[in-house]
Amino acid sequence: MSGRPLDVLEEALDTPVTVHLKDGTAHFGALAGYDQHMNVVLEPTDVEGETPDEVEDTTIIRGDNVVSINA
């Protein structure tokens, strides 16, 4: 994937992603939504075995805390 950040997020919708945060933690789930501030919404996913901290419920992460998002 390449392009503008929001275009990359658009392509990653409904796919499993890992979101790395400033505090060093990472959260794994399906990208359910995002906005122009890079606030992201993660949903639990059925993918097994790749999980840093797999989300157990709908999770909203404030964009100020996001370092990277890997699809």
UniProtKB/TrEMBL annotation:
PROSITE patterns: SM
InterPro entries from the UniProt entry: LSM_dom_sf, Sm, Sm_dom_euk/arc
Residue ranges annotated for the Sm domain, each copy included: 4-71
A Gene Ontology cellular-component term: ribonucleoprotein complex
Keyword Ribonucleoprotein among record annotations: yes
One Pfam family linked to the record: LSM
Entry keyword set: Ribonucleoprotein
Gene Ontology terms, MF aspect: RNA binding
Protein name: Small nuclear ribonucleoprotein (SnRNP)-like protein
